Amino acid sequence: MTPIPAGISLDTLSELPQYPAATSFGSDIDAVNEILLSDTDEQTKRAAFLDWAARHQPCVFGRMATKVGTPARGLAMDLCWIDEQVLAAGPHAIAERTAADRRIWKEQAARGKSSAFLVIFNSRCLAHARPGPDRATTPIPLSLRGYEWICPNSPPWSDASPHGR
Question: DSSP strand E in 107-150: where?
């Protein structure tokens, strides 16, 4: 079992301040969220996300990697899908799912079939959580600063890094 550091809890997810239900995040995001946050099956949600990313991802390599069925050679993307059920099961379930999917991705990458591993937290609570300056300095349950328990053996994030927060 993956060791979870003290203080990592998902108990406060439901307490995150939320945008009102009618808030629009833009027509493209609203359209894909209709699928992602619905009761449809995971494969349909994955396909909807990849289709959205192939058209709206700002990184050209990301767009190329998400082309469903025909990604550029060696630029395919593997997804680790964390849904409400996995979140509800707690930090150990998240760590176990991520570790298992990461092992599969590493095998794919070693054969030149994938170049990216993306963890998707598919949760209405997280999708509609309000950002705020208090959450930039106060750890929230799934902050990147504590991600090492999700992906052990990965390089540590740094506050000096452009992705450190």
Answer: 116-122
Q: What's the distance, Cα to Cα, between the start and end of the chain in Å?
A: 27
Lookup: tokens for 131: 């950002």
Closest to 66 in 3D by CA, of 32, 27, 96: 32
pLDDT (tens, 9 = 90+) of the chain, 165 residues, equals 556 656 666 777 778 889 998 899 999 999 999 999 999 999 999 999 988 888 887 676 666 666 655 555 557 788 899 999 998 888 888 889 999 999 999 998 898 888 888 899 999 988 998 887 665 544 444 443 444 545 555 555 444 444 443
125 torsion bin: left (phi>0), alpha (psi -120 to 50), beta (else): alpha
